[in-house]
Specification:
alpha+beta, 17 helices, 32 strands, 24% strand, extended
Length: 787
Amino acid sequence: MSGTVTFGQSRVPALQSGVYTITVEHLVVNHDPAAQDSKAQAYIDHTFSSVNRFAVTGARFALAPNLVHSVFPPADSRGEYDDVLAHVVLANSTLPWQRTVGHDGGTWLAVLVFHPDDGVGESVTAHIGDLVRAGGTGSPNAGFALESVDGPPLTLAGPLPADAVSYPDLTLEPGESWTDTCRVIDVPVGVFSAIAPAAVDLAWLTHVRTVESADAADDDGTFSVVVSNRLGRQDADCVAHLVSLENLADILPTVAADGSYAPASITVAGGPDAGRPAATVRLVSLKSWSFRPTEPTETFDGFLEHVDRGPLQRPVKAVTDSPGVIDAAVANAFNMGYTALDHHTRLGDRTVTWVRGPLLPFDIGDGLSVPLPDPGTAAITTADAAMRYDPTTGMFDASYAAAWQIGRLLAVQNLSFASALYDWKRAVARATMQAVEREYLESALGATAPGVASADHGLDVVHAVMQVVATHVAPDLADHTGSTVVDRSVSLRPRRTLFERHTAVLADTTALAAIHADTELPDEVSAWLNRLARLNGVPFNYLVPDEAMLPVESVRFFHVDPSWIAALLEGAMSIGTSTAGDAVHEAVLRPHVLAATAQPAPYTGLLLRSGVVAGWPKLKLAGYDAEGSPLRPVRADVLSPTILLAVFVGVVARVDLMEPPLGLHFGVRADKDLRWVTVPPQAPAGARPGDEIVGSSPGAPPTRADPSTLAVATYAGRLAGVVDAAHANDLPGSTTPRPFTAAEFSLQLVEGVDQFRFIQSPGQSPNQSSDKATDASTTGPNKGDQP
């Protein structure tokens, strides 16, 4: 889980979004002296021109879901966010610079954070026409209800109110319509002026981030990041909006020479109230989410530090508090990962049956005897064959029967796999019959018609010819003594002979195995079975049959039972078997199937049920054995919004969970030390770019009249001064400071990603510890047990 994160100032596209005109002119002049008179026949002095228009399209009133990579704080989360600046990570690295805030340039995107008493909540659906004054530019349809295809009518915001302002002189670009929908918010002018960034702030609040991790993760690449300028309020539900500020430079606050922020004069531009102070500002909201700054129990560390740790088993204390023989049996079953479920038999009886999944709370080792047929010689033909009965308790164990049955059902459900498996089984049966026929024909005709038996359609031709001869010709034939060729006519009727020979081959497994020595499982079949062996597609209630085994906010380590996997694969392979001959073929071919689906052993892993899974969807994970060697992951999947399953090859002793590199967030603590951008010779030994400069805190960040809103330009200047004084941003080999841009500013605000470690001690519940990583390649000391 190592790598690098690189900050960049911006990534401006070659052309911003909009409509462009290309004019090509060609001046043609005849310089011949005889053609200088305009009346001369050869005179020419003319400019030919061609005008072409084209559009550069880009996001404007809505963002495709895949353009928003992530947000921080996570949506609908609660945590220690009171000193955190919310931000959006965009998958398009040039998006913030594809449009402009106004005549002086600058990015068109900003993240505005609203508190409950600001009077701004969730965005509402509107038409683009709702952004202009009724009767003004365009929008004859503003304010009507648009029928949703799969739901009730969408409630639109309605025409722009008389005392509101929005995007001035709004015109449509190619592909846009006044009836296109968007999301809007109406912000009181006082709130907007108090918290909106100034035009000069926007450059500091947007940067580019390039992530390169050693494991080539999905979130590697270059992204653009838009950061808010306002903090959330403790114990209050805050809403963040990524808004469009396109062409709104004139209504943004301005920054005076002394660093103070002055609100712009925001007046109504048209209609009967033209020139009067506006009451609200209507903005397009491209993305919105809620979060609540609160106590640190729901941060990344907060979630994981409070998860329940224990074996993957139903709590024994939930059964009884009085010891006894039966109680001991129940306790032992629960300790082995069993739970008791209602069982309706085919006869209509009701009973209780033991069931467990493939994930065991103990290491089965090599000494556990599993009541299954020998995997090399016999197959499970029905689910009942895998049922086991304990006469001492009078209860059945349906664990392997359930595995066999769900394997069969999953195979039937997958039409592509089922068809491929059926076709292969039929091809195997045909191959056996063809081998028998070729053997017969070679012995009967090899001397007179060599090669016929091995020809592509030789068998069919010989069948037809021999049938005609046996029926119509052989009875009238005589040998040289004049006797009727009765014995030969019998030999010319091959079907009975072939049937007897085929029956004999099926009874001789050695001969049948020789015929299919080179038979291989089709790639499609083996690939699907191998995915199934990794438990892909197995319903979660088969993996964990009792919710009490994995309560809310818990982590469980486990060992995978290979016999359960074997029963699962047996069930999947059982489809398409309908005759005794099919069963014989399966028994002979089982070694081929087992070889194609052999899984490395042992499999172990971890189940995590926690809000951290939903809050950090790009969570990084790595497993290590007892010696600290990394283990190869078989799978690491989010099975539900709160459940993560990780399986490794080998015995896992430690699992590290880390926020994704894009989970780097921005904080403005008063005691926050700054970081080295470049490392000068006088820096402490071992210092690297991104490391903290001890004792370099610039103090409490300056704020505007609203104490939660950062005076961004002033703060950026202060940070630049501290960094330059520490020679922490010098040009290589000199004492001259490099330019201090949004990249350097963002680096100074970075709060490191968290790393959390679960340590599984043999025979004990997992311990835990946490790290704080300042970048993707650096971790701090553990705050808990060492591995």
